[in-house]
Design goal:
Layout (H helix, E strand, L loop, with lengths): L16 E7 L2 E6 L4 E8 L2 E7 L24 E4 L3 E5 L3 E6 L5 E5 L4 E4 L5
Antiparallel strand pairs: 1-2, 2-3, 3-4, 5-6, 6-7, 7-8, 8-9
Length: 120
């Protein structure tokens, strides 16, 4: 017989965009309810997303990234508009909605690849 386990899963929903800044290869995007999104282009077509709700990011580790992986130097273009923050490389366009930090990813021709449907 399996023991019943109670998981207290809670989705987080960032509120309105507050500010952003770039530090090296990372772009820090803040919301009004203290959610922080770090967006890092590892190559021109690989983006890493990290979120925190408490202002603290644990040691940088990912099961998805091989420790031997060599990050590439990526030229980024950042455009801040009234309703979105657009961060792009030569191959990928990442749009951050300022209403709720929802992420939409497009190829360089503007075709939608992926978009957030709700919180994280």
């Amino acid at each position: 017989m399996l023991a019943k386990t109670d998981f207290n899963h809670r989705e987080f929903h960032p509120e309105r965009f507050s500010n952003f800044f770039q530090e090296g290869k990372k772009i820090f995007i803040h919301s009004e309810n203290n959610v922080i999104l770090i967006l890092e282009f590892l190559t021109t077509d690989i983006i890493r997303f990290r979120y925190t709700t408490n202002g603290f990011f644990p040691k940088d580790f990912s099961y998805a990234i091989d420790p031997k992986f060599k990050r590439k130097k990526v030229q980024l273009n950042i455009i801040e508009e009234s309703k979105q923050l657009i961060i792009s490389s030569s191959k990928i366009i990442c749009s951050i909605n300022k209403k709720n930090l929802a992420v939409s990813i497009f190829d360089s021709k503007g075709n939608l690849i992926n978009e957030d449907s709700k919180g994280f």
